[in-house]
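for the writeup, i need someone to sanity check this before i put it in the appendix. the sequnce is what the collaborator sent (i think, or maybe the updated version? ugh). structure was predicted straight from it, no edits. if anything looks off just tell me and ill rerun, i have time this weekend
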Amino acid sequence: MKKKTLCLLLVLVLTMGLTATFSFADSIGNGDASTYATASVGFATKRISDTKAAASVNVDFTAKADSYVVAIVLQKKTNSGWVTATDVAGSAHYYRGTNSTDVVTYDTWTVKKGVVYRIKCVSTDSYDSGIEYKRTSYSEPF
């Protein structure tokens, strides 16, 4: 009887320990950053005229982000590659928030005639579990 009680107590203790371990792992997404991430980034860009451009960016997170920062940066094409269009007023816009599963932005710029541009989107979503995920995406040139 003593042996049976001891075995039952041991099984109970081990079971409780495993349950606590699995509960903790689930609460942090099994420690896998892919559980929390920027799921997708969609762009809608338009050259309204030779000197006016607009862009809408839709960022979807895989879970409700406890906090996020989405940076929308206008870049221009040069001989050496893509650079931030610092000669355009308001070339960078930042969207910050909390408790969201997605972010939709809309920005317009007065651009230079004959210059090719694109949007660089840097999305950072953070979670109370301590996980932070960062994704950089680019639109098609316009």
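Strands lie at 38-49, 52-78, 81-84, 92-110, 117-126, 132-138. The chain has a mean pLDDT of 82.
thx in advance!!
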